[in-house]
Amino acid sequence: MALAGTALPFDDIRDLARAMPALDSEAVAKVRQRDSQLTKPPGSLGRLESLVEWLAAVQGKATPTVSRPLVAIFAGNHGVVARGVSPYPQEVTRQMLENFSAGGAAINQICTTFDLGLKVFDLALDIPTGDITVEAALDEKACAATMAFGMEAVSGGIDLLVLGEMGIGNTTIAAAIYHALYGGEAGHWVGRGTGIDDAGLVRKTAAVRDAVAFHQSHVKDPLEVLRRLGGREIAAMAGAILAARSQRIPVVLDGYVVCAAAAVLHAMDPALLDHCVSGHVSAEGAHADVLARLGKKPLLDLGMRLGEGSGAALAVSLIKAALACHTGMATFAQAGVTDKA
Ligand SMILES: O=C(O)c1ccc[n+]([C@@H]2O[C@H](COP(=O)([O-])O)[C@@H](O)[C@H]2O)c1
Ligand SMILES: Cc1cc2nc[nH]c2cc1C
Predict the structure, then answer these.
(1) What are the tens digits of pLDDT across the range 54-113?
(2) CA-to-CA distance for 278 and 23, rounded, in angstroms?
(3) Number of domains in the chain
(4) Which atom of ligand 1 is nearest to the CA of 204?
């Protein structure tokens, strides 16, 4: 167990969320000015151009960097797996952490390919959170301490944060959070996760419906949704997103589970995600709907549903390429290329 975070009551977290730095419009103007001189028709690099503007706005620098990108994977275990909501047993969460350490997981290969740092955080895997169908996942103190732990994980001079997670059962947790925040039918939010069969899908949908019904009178407060229906990795990622914002670090969101942490913050204040882009849209059915609600257009759509930050880490390749174009391209004057009249 590695929960050393200072416990902040939810009121302190709300205060912190209200005190985030503004985005830097002067840095964006300077990026646009340089972009207009580069040897290409205006706008021809499409979304790559807006990615550089976004980096500059968040970092507050006319020449942003992606020199020290970090993939942070937060791992947690969930009492709700007792409801038969995942085809895999709970011990796979820890076994996959050992696989990450040994370099054998997909995320290890992606990090090596694109030169990304990787840190994995074990969030009390031996103590699964409460079964959300009959109790709260966490009490306020534990939830706030886990958010603080996630905040403290964002340090060490990184200039881009990729969020990932690992936790058997956590697509049920994410679905419950979305159902609580956004309403509708439980079944709309429930997908097959790691590949649950038809009977399991029925159990999973019932678990999400039961959980949200059980906590219904508390779902107006997003932080209550997080502590009652969430998990430690979701709470830590919410803390990490907040800390990244206060340290002016851009964040790349991964799939269905990571976005549940983002959705909690978005429900508090949509501007809390201004420093985040969506790395990819997951094959988990409702993720596209979630991204639309968050106002985020995914960079990639590769049919992936792995987690581990894998889709987001792949998207860093595009962000790096966008920045390399912006910083490395010649201007019309430098290259002796005639600009349009
Ligand atoms: O993030 C996603 O889009 C995603 C979609 C499906 C599965 N996962 C991963 O699979 C695990 C949860 O799946 P499950 O079926 O046990 O709820 C967890 O470790 C997630 O990282 C992740
Ligand atoms: C093997 C395995 C690897 C994973 N990586 C992220 N979630 C996962 C779930 C399973 C089951």
Answers:
(1) 999 999 999 999 999 999 999 999 999 999 999 999 999 999 999 999 999 999 999 999
(2) 18
(3) 1
(4) 17
* CATH number of the domain encompassing residue 223: 3.40.50.10210
Task: Please name the residues in contact with 289: beta carbons below 8 A apart, sequence gap of 6 or more.
Answer: 188
Indicate whether 117 belongs to any domain: yes
6 pLDDT band, cuts 50/70/90, is low
Is the CB of 169 inside a 6 Å radius of any atom of ligand 2? no
Instruction: Check pocket membership of 233 for ligand 2, CB cut-off 6 A.
Output: no
* Ligand 2 and 194: CB distance under 6 A: yes
Residue 131 located in a structural domain: yes
Instruction: Establish whether this prediction's ipTM goes over 0.95.
Output: yes
Q: Is the CB of 106 under 6 A from ligand 2?
A: no
* C-alpha span between 291 and 286 (Å, rounded): 9
CA of 165 to the centre of ligand 1 (A): 8
Q: For 277-311, what is each residue's pLDDT tens digit?
A: 999 999 998 999 999 999 999 999 999 999 999 99
Domain that holds residue 134: 68-321
The answer to whether residue 308 is catalytic is: yes
Q: Number of helices and strands (H, E) in the chain?
A: 15, 5
d(CA 86, CA 91): 12
Q: Which atom of ligand 1 is nearest to the CA of 93?
A: 19
